[in-house]
Amino acid sequence: MGRSDLYLGVDAGNSKTLAAVADATGRIVGWARGGLGDIYGAPTPEHAIDTVLSVVDGALDAAGVDTGRIASAAFRLAGVDWPEDEGLWTSALDARLPGVRHSVKNDGFALLRCGEPSGVGVAVSLGTGAAIAGRGAGGEEFFVSWWFQHNLGAAGLGSDAFRATMLAELGLGEPTSLGAALSAFYGTSGAEDLLHAFTRREQPLGHHDRARAARVVVAEAAAGDPVAFAIVREHAIRAVDYITICARRVGLDAHRELPVVLGGSVLAAPESLLRQLIVDELRGAIPDARVVTTGAVPIRGAVLDAIAEGGVAVDAAIQAAVLASEPPEGLLST
Fold first, then answer.
1. What is the count of structural domains for the chain?
2. Residue limits of the ATPase BadF/BadG/BcrA/BcrD type domain (predicted)?
């Protein structure tokens, strides 16, 4: 029987799936990328499963190994929201990766070890959407997923700015510089032309186009527009609400030093106003919070989870090795 001395991490979402194989020191020796791996977003769950396992095969091929070398695998997957989702994936992995020890969790957990090697704390990833997940010192876990009642992340910022612009144009909201800024960003001639661009019958702009405007909202807020600032601050307050709930659910609300890992494109951006407002709000809500901001992509956290779940104590050196491993050019591009 061959050695089982490598670790497999998988991060699957609505736009792409990534897999990576690492050794026990954290050096990544094989990478692969494929398409959508979310069972809620794919044409069928089987399509998502096939996609993810094809990417796994690609990472194993890149590493020059087979599944017999894998000591532990961590699957961090968008769309693992309910017990039946975890059960579906577990059954599929048992059947198609026999003998491989694996865990299946919501993708919100993937970022946590990128900022906190122990895997204890709360992770907040704000990209196009939002993912917030927490793990307690005893292994208790909670993730927000469908519990979100506010549209956070870039898509939420863009939607709120769009709404504020239209209300201002109708005289139902406060005047704001957002209208002119959004029109310049999208190349439209004013509020009505902007509205038309998103609602016309043929080739309207969509969800991801609206999310692109997050940078405009934050820039106008930083420049002093009170409406834009109120939007960004409201997002910070709501994010801290969900962080607090996560911490409480896993027994960390009284934790002496609560690690909070912030990441995703909206929070990892240089001089992010939203990040600073979240930190400010955390000081009041959880005074002992220790905030770590990371620009790492979640696949690296999935690899760290696999190593930890394989019985290796993940320390700062292993974390640094995983974070420093260079992928093939273009593999991590959005």
1. 2
2. 8-304
**CA 247 – CA 243 distance, rounded (Å):** 6
Residues 18 and 102 placed together within one structural domain of the fold: yes
DSSP 146: G
Compute the distance between CA of residue 67 and CA of residue 88 in angstroms, rounded to an integer: 21
332 within some domain:
no
Alpha-carbon distance of 89 to 45, in angstroms, equals 9
Are 132 and 198 in the same domain? yes
Q: What's the confidence (pLDDT) of residue 254? A: 67
Asked whether residue 202 carries a pLDDT value surpassing 80, the answer given is: yes
Residue 255 binned pLDDT confidence (cut-offs 50, 70, 90): low
In a domain, 86, yes or no: yes
Contacts of 118 (CB under 8 A, 6+ apart): 259, 314
pLDDT in tens, 12-50: 988 899 999 999 999 999 999 999 999 999 999 999 999
9 touches 303 (CB < 8 A) = yes
- Indicate if 66 and 84 belong to the same structural domain: yes
For residue 102, the enclosing domain spans 6-111+296-324
Give me the pLDDT at residue 294, please: 94
CA–CA distance, 7 with 73 (Å, rounded to integer): 6
Tokens of 183: 């029109």
